[in-house]
């Protein structure tokens, strides 16, 4: 970074008058080196940037500090007896327009610096008698030597528009009071600094976010660990069973398990959720065979209930969610494990058998280390994916009603993950400020776990152990 700006300083200091004129007109240096098309393009970009900033982004950036001061009002015109609306501020558009304007201005400054450095390099090439490319030669280079730049341009813009801007926007919302009582365009919202973060960790009689957040975070991490471990090891054991030499009908077994992947997950989860509901078919069967009464006798089901609360009470719902997720996730892991097991070097397995190792020792000392080595990054991805596993939790517990007033006060349920709590806050209660704070916490947790896991699991050169 230091060299980047020092090169700019050198270009300003040692540049000729064509190079220095590029400080005012970005295309001037190209005009002086007979690169007319490039000069026109850079000058057009400069004019467009100035017009965009003055006409679009500057009005938003000027109000970014307050997010607007003029409230929307409807005024009745006595002459026409019709309502008119004043020239009001929209906090949402101000924030979004301000962010876009700042990013655009930053990108233009970097382009401005790079342009002057490029013009200075042309000056040096001319002074040393080197050949200066024509516009056609530059275009040819973009499909040859610099083809990677051409390929990455559109994806880079896509990442900026689809990922970076929404993330910055979400982070900024966390520092505002944007909620149901401050909904643009009817109402303004403003900056509140760190008040929302303090509220997330506060537990009082009226504010229970701190109480709820700790418990949901704890359940989210437990769920992610159990869901990842059960499907991962279950998939490996299932693949070992199907691929065993004595197992018959391997294709049939694979087909039966793959069917669960072929059916859309939201269909199967909604159906299973109805089957295990308080008055669903599973509870009817349990009641007829006497299982419900037995569970009452041993104290696992409350006396006042005539059903087993599979998905309607804490504890029961937590266990059932994990068990149902095994049924949903194991077939996918089975397919991955099957491909990896088929690539384990046979000479290692045969050598272990000759040395007297039994099946369990071979599995624990050879198969599992090889599986962990190959699927380590995928395992981390699965863990992060389960932290944000919206479908399983939301679809199975859509009818869940909490009996805990502290959870209800924070618009949460005992079975919520951070991501489903975030969704409820935004979709049902328009509490965007707290949802953004929770989103930032989810990002920090996922980033920390990913960096720590990758540094430990992928570090070093372990390829030689499996050669």
Report on this model:
By secondary structure, the chain is mainly alpha-helical. It folds into two domains: 2-193, no CATH class; 204-276 and 311-466, MetI-like (MetI-like fold, Orthogonal Bundle), CATH 1.10.3720.10. 67% of the residues lie in helices and 2% in strands. It is built from 20 helices and two strands. Strands 1-2 form a two-stranded antiparallel ribbon. It is flat, with a radius of gyration of 31 Å. The mean pLDDT is 87.
Short description:
The chain is mainly α and 467 residues long. The chain has helices spanning 2-14, 17-21, 28-32, 36-62, 91-127, 135-142, 147-173, 195-200, 209-242, 250-262, 265-275, 281-288, 291-297, 316-341, 346-354, 359-387, 390-396, 405-409, 418-427, 432-457; strands at residues 74-77, 82-85.
Q: What string, H for helix and E for strand, traces the elements in order?
A: HHHHEEHHHHHHHHHHHHHHHH
Estimate the helix proportion, in percent: 55-70%
- Proportion of β residues? under 5%
Q: Using only CA atoms, what is the Rg?
A: 31 Å
CATH class membership of the largest domain: Mainly Alpha
CATH-level-4 superfamily name of the largest domain: MetI-like
In this structure, how is the largest beta sheet organized? Answer: 2 strands, antiparallel
Tell me the CATH topology of the largest domain.
Answer: MetI-like fold
Tally of distinct domains: 2
By DSSP, the count of extended strands is: 2
Uncertain stretches:
none
Give the overall pLDDT as a whole number.
87
Helix count, DSSP H or I runs of 4 or more residues: 20
Shape: flat
Secondary structure class reads: mainly alpha
Distance between the amino and carboxyl termini: 42 Å
């Amino acid at each position: 970074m230091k060299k980047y700006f020092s090169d700019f300083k050198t270009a300003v200091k040692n540049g000729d008058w064509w190079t220095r004129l590029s400080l005012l007109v970005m295309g001037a240096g190209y005009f002086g080196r007979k690169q007319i098309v490039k000069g026109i393009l850079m000058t057009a970009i400069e004019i467009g940037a100035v017009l965009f900033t003055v006409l679009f982004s500057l009005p938003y950036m000027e109000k970014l500090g307050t997010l607007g001061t003029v409230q929307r009002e409807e005024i009745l015109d006595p002459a026409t007896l019709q309502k008119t609306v004043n020239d009001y501020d929209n906090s949402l558009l101000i924030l979004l327009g301000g962010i876009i304007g700042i990013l655009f201005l930053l990108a233009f400054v970097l382009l401005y610096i790079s342009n002057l450095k490029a013009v200075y390099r042309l000056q040096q090439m001319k002074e040393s008698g080197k050949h200066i490319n024509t516009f056609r030669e530059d275009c040819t280079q973009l499909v040859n030597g610099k083809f990677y730049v051409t390929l990455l341009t559109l994806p880079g813009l896509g990442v900026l528009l689809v990922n970076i801007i929404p993330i910055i926007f979400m982070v900024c919302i966390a520092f505002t009071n944007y909620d149901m009582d401050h909904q643009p365009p009817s109402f303004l919202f403003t900056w509140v600094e760190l008040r929302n973060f303090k509220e997330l960790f506060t537990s009082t009689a009226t504010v229970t976010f701190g109480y709820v957040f700790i418990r949901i975070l704890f359940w989210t991490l437990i769920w992610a660990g159990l869901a990842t471990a059960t499907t991962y090891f279950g998939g490996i054991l299932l693949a070992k069973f199907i691929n065993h030499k004595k197992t018959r009908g391997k294709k049939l077994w694979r087909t039966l398990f793959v069917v669960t992947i072929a059916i859309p997950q939201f269909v199967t989860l909604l159906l299973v959720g109805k089957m295990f509901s308080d008055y669903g078919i599973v509870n009817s069967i349990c009641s007829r065979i006497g299982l419900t009464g037995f569970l009452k006798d041993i104290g696992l089901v409350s006396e006042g209930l005539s059903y087993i609360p599979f998905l309607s009470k804490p504890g029961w719902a937590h266990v059932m969610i994990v068990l149902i997720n095994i049924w949903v996730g194991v077939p996918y892991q089975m397919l991955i494990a099957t491909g990896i097991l088929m690539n384990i070097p046979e000479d290692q397995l045969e050598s272990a058998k000759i040395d007297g190792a039994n099946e369990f020792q071979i599995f624990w000392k050879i198969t599992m280390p090889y599986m962990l080595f190959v699927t380590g990054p995928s395992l981390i991805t699965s863990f992060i994916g389960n932290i944000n596993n919206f479908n399983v939790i939301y679809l199975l517990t859509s009818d869940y009603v909490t009996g805990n007033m502290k959870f209800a006060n924070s618009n949460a349920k005992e079975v919520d993950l951070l991501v489903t709590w975030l969704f409820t806050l935004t979709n049902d209660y328009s509490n965007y400020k707290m949802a953004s704070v929770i989103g930032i916490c989810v990002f920090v947790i996922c980033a920390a776990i990913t960096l720590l896991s990758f540094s430990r699991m992928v570090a070093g050169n372990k390829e030689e152990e499996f050669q």
